[in-house]
């Protein structure tokens, strides 16, 4: 009986929520008139789901809150082994895809699941420097991605500069914009910082939309030169990559090349971040996240510390942007809206701020997860031909967020690894580590 | 003994409240100067002005980390409008991080401000940011693992190890600072400030919340800092046994004004000081009366 009341309440709440959005559906009829199409059965189903779900939850034995240990031991050898296996899988992924799916089927697996995920891994690693290490909440990270993409798009189409020269230039330009934004903005803290960075992201997008003489506005910049294999284009002609290496031409060569290119860029981001963490600059970022006032009392120029974090994060965003442009061959402002910033930030938060491996796993889960929804077309046989599983992407991301906030509020990897130790380094529990946002 | 810090006519107003009112005093090299007074007297505000966290409403704060304070030189510097030159600094003109880095003034906080999610060792290494940063050559030498940076890092770790041993925390070097007991955190914060290589160390109530044994340890630590590490101390303290025991020179504030300044024995007998402390709760008065044998 005691379990019934909460269950009834849950059902009522479900009814309240479902009534306006599920039960009352509007549609256009043949004469283009808006008609109301009630779906009471759907609403009843939602109520039943809430009722029985709550009952079932109540029947579970109560979870004892377990005291979080301040420190946990170094991950056992097993974890290291798993990490190595994961790296091997990533390194061999295109060939595994080719082997199992054949040349035509592999394209999707390498491009959608490989390249697409790795772009976000790299972006999230770049943002992780700003949000995870330095503890500065940046809601406009996509601006630097856009700067990198347009840098390559414009330099290559207007001046014919090659990708390999544009790539560092895109990074430098993005870092430059990071510093330019940083100067006025980094005096702000917390919510104010978040809002101004968000505005900066939007400003860049709106400028790209309206500065038509340079950026061609909403229509974007098309026919951006594709990547070449250090000068060898991926074409069928006699000067192409395939001919040079005596291979049979296949469009998959280019995709495999792009895969390894973004993999190298992402690993570079990771390598530099991990090394910097152990240098004074990286320790200063983390100290800033822990306590800005103490930093200043120790002689750290916190403005410089923040600027370097911003510039470095922006630089990796710029690299990723140049890669994006060379992969798509087309850029337009709509690729750089706030949703992108939000997705990248969600990956960092879900993965665990400051943790490289956690962020990578979260990128696989969120980006891979939304790609995999496309594979669920068979659900149409159950829900009817109108059912489009990809429409549920944001719903699932939201559910994942709610679940994480409940069970692992500090992300998949909650602990922090010390940057230096005298004895055996031990992980530091999340309850000690601050979140920053200064 | 020559002075290394001279505070002149320091005034700090918050709106209508004058927290510090025309206070002047000196801290001398190789001495422990105590700044005492009832709660709300303005002691922490004086610290915040010296360390640049507040910009004083009026007054001049001169600091000579190595040489001696010379009145003519201070006046010349004041007229020149510069922040500092030839090893002489006017702290009220400098931002907080420059005061720590160039004028070599380090401080601790009344409410401990350790980097709680970093280990005790990391806390001490962050404090050595300046020498490590210049050795890492904009991080490029550091990224490349250049020998120059490796040497600097080894020296920093050695210094951290020596301080951890000095404060008996070497066994907890790899524990997060936030997980240490309160007394250990206090000592770690002092060691961290010392790792920043200060000429003047400002401690805000270092004995607050310590038990008598820990207080005695602290007194020994403060003496060692003065005698072995070539640093002068400026100390805010409520615990009169610590103040009378350890300080060479005492400055007393009440309602933002200086009411006494001199050797501990002279200050404890000063009627104005006794009267000032009568305004505080009974147990504190009793404790002080016992201290001074009244
Ligand atoms: N930032 C501030 N804004 C307003 N009033 C302040 C500020 N800091 C200190 N005060 C006031 O100045 C007075 C002196 O404070 P403080 O220096 O902290 O005293 P003490 O450290 O001697 O106990 C108090 O009345 C306090 O409320
Ligand atoms: Mg105080």
Describe this entry's structure for a reader.
- The complex is a heterodimer of chains A (438) and B (294).
- Chain A is 66% helix and 4% strand.
- In chain A, the strands form 3 sheets. In chain A, strands 1-2 form a two-stranded antiparallel sheet. A two-stranded antiparallel ribbon of chain A has the order 3-6.
- In chain A, strand 4 and strand 5 (232-233) form a beta hairpin.
- The longest helix of chain A has 57 residues, at 77-133.
- With 438 residues, chain A is mainly α.
- Chain A has 2 domains: 1-58; 93-429, no CATH class.
- Chain B has helices at residues 43-50, 71-80, 96-101, 120-126, 129-135, 140-144, 147-166, 182-195, 212-228, 240-246, 264-268, 271-278, 282-292; strands at 3-14, 17-28, 32-36, 58-63, 84-85, 88-90, 105-107, 200-204, 232-236, 249-254, 257-262.
- In chain B, helix 4 (120-126) packs parallel to helix 8 and helix 7 packs across helix 8 (182-195).
- In chain B, 49% of the residues are buried.
- The chains are: A mainly alpha (438), B alpha/beta (294).
- The A-B interface holds A 70-71, 272, 275-276, 279-281, 283-284, 286-287, 289-291, 293-302, 416, 418-426, 428-429, 432-434 and B 51, 53, 96-98, 100-101, 106-107, 109, 113-119, 121-122, 125-127, 129-130, 132-133, 136, 139, 142-143, 149, 157, 161, 170, 173-179, 192-193, 196.
- The structure holds adenosine-5'-diphosphate and magnesium ion (MG).
- Adenosine-5'-diphosphate binds next to strand 2 and helix 1 of chain B.
Brief summary of the model shown:
The complex is a heterodimer of chains A (438) and B (294). With 438 residues, chain A is mainly alpha-helical.
């Amino acid at each position: 009986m005691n379990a019934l009341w909460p269950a009834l309440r849950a059902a009522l709440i479900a009814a309240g929520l479902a009534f306006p959005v599920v039960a009352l559906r509007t549609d256009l009829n043949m004469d283009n008139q808006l008609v109301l199409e009630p779906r009471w059965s759907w609403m009843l189903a939602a109520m039943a789901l809430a009722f029985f779900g709550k009952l079932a939850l109540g029947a579970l034995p109560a979870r004892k809150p377990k005291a979080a240990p301040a420190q946990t031991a170094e991950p056992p050898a097993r974890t290291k082994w798993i990490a190595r296996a994961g790296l091997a899988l990533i390194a061999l992924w295109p060939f595994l895809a080719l082997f199992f799916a054949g040349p035509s089927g592999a394209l999707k697996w390498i491009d959608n699941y490989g390249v697409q995920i790795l772009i976000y891994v790299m972006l999230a690693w770049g943002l992780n420097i700003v949000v995870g290490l330095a503890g500065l909440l940046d809601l406009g990270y996509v601006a630097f991605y856009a700067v990198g993409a347009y840098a390559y798009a414009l330099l290559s189409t207007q001046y014919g500069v090659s990708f390999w020269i544009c790539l560092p230039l895109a990074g430098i330009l993005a870092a430059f914009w990071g510093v330019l934004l940083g100067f006025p903005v980094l005096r702000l803290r917390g919510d104010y910082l978040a809002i101004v960075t968000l505005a900066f992201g939007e400003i860049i997008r709106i400028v790209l939309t309206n500065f038509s003489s340079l950026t061609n506005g909403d229509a974007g910049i098309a026919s951006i030169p594709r990547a070449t294999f250090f000068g060898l284009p991926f074409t069928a002609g006699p000067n192409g990559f395939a001919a040079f290496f005596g291979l049979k031409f296949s469009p998959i060569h280019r995709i495999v090349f792009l895969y390894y290119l973004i993999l190298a860029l992402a690993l570079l981001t990771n390598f530099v971040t991990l090394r910097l963490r152990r240098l004074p600059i990286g320790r200063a970022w983390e100290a800033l996240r822990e306590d800005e006032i103490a930093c200043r009392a120790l002689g750290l120029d916190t403005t410089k510390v923040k600027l370097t974090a911003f510039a470095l994060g922006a630089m990796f965003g710029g690299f990723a942007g140049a890669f994006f442009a060379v992969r798509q061959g087309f850029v337009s402002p709509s690729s750089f809206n706030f949703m992108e910033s939000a997705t990248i930030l969600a990956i960092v938060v879900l993965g665990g701020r400051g943790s490289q491996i956690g962020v990578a796993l979260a990128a696989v889960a969120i980006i891979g997860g939304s790609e995999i929804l496309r594979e669920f077309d068979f659900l149409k046989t159950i829900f009817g031909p109108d059912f489009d599983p990809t429409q549920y992407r944001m719903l699932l991301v939201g559910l994942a967020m709610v679940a994480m906030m409940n069970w692992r509020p500090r992300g998949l990897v909650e602990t922090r690894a010390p940057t230096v130790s005298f004895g055996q380094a031990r992980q530091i529990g999340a309850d000690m580590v601050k979140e920053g946002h200064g | 003994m020559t002075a290394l810090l001279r505070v002149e006519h320091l005034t700090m107003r918050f709106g209508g409240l004058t927290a510090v009112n025309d206070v002047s005093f000196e801290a001398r090299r190789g001495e422990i100067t105590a700044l005492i007074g009832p709660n709300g007297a303005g002691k922490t505000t004086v610290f915040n002005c010296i360390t640049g966290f507040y910009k004083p409403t009026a007054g001049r704060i001169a600091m000579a980390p190595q040489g001696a304070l010379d009145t003519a030189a201070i006046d010349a510097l004041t007229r020149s409008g510069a922040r500092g030159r030839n090893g002489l600094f006017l702290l009220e003109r400098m931002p907080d991080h420059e005061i720590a880095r160039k004028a070599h003034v380090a401080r601790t906080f009344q409410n401990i401000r350790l980097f709680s999610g970093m280990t005790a060792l990391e806390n001490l290494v962050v404090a050595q940011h300046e020498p490590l940063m210049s050795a890492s050559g904009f991080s490029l030498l550091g990224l490349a693992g250049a020998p120059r940076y490796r040497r600097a890092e080894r020296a920093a770790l050695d210094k951290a190890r020596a301080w951890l041993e000095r404060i008996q925390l070497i066994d907890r070097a790899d524990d997060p600072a936030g997980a240490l007991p309160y007394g250990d955190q206090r000592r770690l914060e002092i060691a961290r400030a010392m790792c920043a290589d200060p000429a003047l160390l400002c401690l805000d109530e270092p004995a607050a919340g310590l038990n008598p044994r820990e207080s005695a340890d602290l007194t020994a630590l403060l003496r060692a800092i003065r005698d072995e590490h070539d640093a002068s101390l400026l100390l805010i303290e409520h615990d009169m046994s610590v103040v009378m025991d350890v300080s060479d020179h005492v400055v007393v504030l009440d309602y933002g004004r200086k009411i006494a300044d001199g050797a501990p024995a002279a200050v404890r007998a000063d009627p104005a000081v006794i009267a000032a402390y009568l305004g505080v709760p009974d147990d504190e008065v009793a404790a002080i009366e016992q201290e001074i044998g009244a």
